[in-house]
Amino acid sequence: MPDSPETSTDEHLSFAAQQDIPIPYLARIRSYYQALGYGKPYVWAHYSSVPFTPLTKPLADCRLALVTTAAPYQPDKGDQGPGAAYNGAAKFHRVYTLSSDSEPDLRISHISYDRQHTTAEDMRSWCPLAQMKQCAAKGEISGLTRSLLGVPTNRSQKTTLTQDAPEILERITEEGADAVVLVPNCPVCHQTVSLTARHLEANGIPTVVMACAKDIVEHVGVPRLLFSDFPLGNAAGKPNDEASQAFTLGLALQTLAAAPGPRTTVQSPLRWSDDPDWKQDFYNIERLSDQQIRDLRADFDRQKDIAKREREKSRA
Asked: Is residue 78 part of a domain?
């Protein structure tokens, strides 16, 4: 009798580990915040229909815009470097633009990326600006818009839809963007850029989202998604791995050009690790002690207060 898939010595006939699937962020986050005592779960944006604008000319003739949720470094706002703890003071609350010709210092300490399995030491793993410049130099795209754009991570879907996404559309239209690459980092970032991508597509601008939280982006509903099964904070490739970063952006651009219609998802074949156990850690309440849960609740409340004060100052 031949071996069963579970016992076969032929690796091509063996099943993957049961946990070797994309992280179910929506379910994890719901359980996590309920365990912290926050009651009614957050309602994520969800659409049944998805706008889609085809790319009407070759990529080599397209000027691309880049939208990120990373924050410009603010020296007066505490530690924002590699491995920094969550830093609510470093948040930004309005769309920003920086010259795409510059070498901006962007950080992600203001959001909930996967601090256990990555360190945020290489900006190129969450912001593919340098790699996009290389594509332009090779003639794979015609160039970049003059501005890199930052969209704030916002739990308020109304604010994203009525304020931030229209502002992104206005700015990239002024700069002649033919298409847009959007790169989120934390769970709420993924919702933010998905809503922004939908708004751009509904107004005639093709988009592709490079993301690590597949279920959140697909739950919202976007035209094109390149999914990398990596820890949050690495949607543009593995840190300090130029080959991974080049491959990831190249696959995103192929998805942008070749998607046949809305809800096109392409999964990168790259793996973070041969051991999939890292997927069991992020926001997994089953791996936390009662004391850890109490400590997390206290820190979350403290960070909410900090972020609220910073938001109020930005509006003043």
From this structure: yes
